[in-house]
Amino acid sequence: MKAACWYGIRDVRVQEVAEPAIQPGMVKLRVKWCGICGTDLHEYLAGPIFIPAEPHPLTKETYPLILGHEFSAEVIEVGPGVSKVKAGDRVTVEPILNCGTCYSCRKGLYNACDSLGFHGLSGGGGGFSEVTMVKEHMVHKLADNMSYEQGALVEPAAVAVHAVRESRLKMGDTCVVFGAGPIGLLVIQAAKAAGASRIIAVEVSEGRQQTALKMGATAIVNPLKEDAAQAVCRMTDGGADVVFEVTGAEVCLNQSIQCAKAAGQIVIVSIWEKPAAIHPNALVLKEREVRGIIAYRDIFPQVIQLISDGKLQIDEMISKKIALDDLVEGGLEALANDKNNLKILVSP
Length: 348
Fold this sequence. Notes:
The mean pLDDT is 96. The protein is of the alpha/beta class. 28% of the residues lie in helices and 27% in strands. The protein folds into two domains: 2-153 and 314-347, Quinone Oxidoreductase, Chain A, domain 1 (Alpha-Beta Complex), CATH 3.90.180; 159-292, 3-Layer(aba) Sandwich (Rossmann fold), CATH 3.40.50.720. It has eleven helices and 18 strands.
């Protein structure tokens, strides 16, 4: 079968690989659509980050390995012991790999596993392939009124919903979202659904600014034209209740801290390519709190329901659809060179 494998920085190859054979407790899937994630782009431009340079403790694999972790699929075969789904079911995949035995896993925080990995980043297959195979608990049935395209966006939507649910945001609060890429736009929608009264998006791309307003942002700040922290503090009488940092840029992290009110909260959603420096006094002198979140947990069914009910508008985020053979030029390079692209879906 055909699959896209990561070999190194700007070296992703579409090639023939062996199709996986069904095993007990596993579900074999024919991938319908797989989204290119910001993490995929980070790996393409600066990896390995999540991709294991040494054999991963759970998959025992290192690169080259198959990419793709935001995907929808049709079940084509199930292994002995599987009862949750059957052949023909339409599903999306929660791609977290966890050990089940470390402290975090024992406490139910499986997304903070000591050996955390992802299907499509850590080995075991991925969504940028014609067929892949995952454990039964990783598949979730799509609602009948959802398309496969929408199914591929459940995973990034889960990141955003988890970020908002784990934050201190309450109905009527003001929030700021730094970065109006796909995750940032989904955070805006999740914050709106959670009852935020004002949502300020900080974004440099004019195209993404307009999309942010369509998705629920009530105001836009362009940090290239004005000081973001000063603008937010002016709009909010001293700062926002909660600030979501979704850029992975050091300058934005520091601006995010300055945008939070006294005793406000900064939630770091982005994945970082390298360390970033902050001044601790920016936290200490205003008693601000910084919170990190990673991925999601126990949330996919709720996200599927939100999309099915129309409370998360995700169709407008799809910039284009491409074939697997066009993944590099039409997908990864396009995202690297044009920030007006949002979500590109790939069909194997």
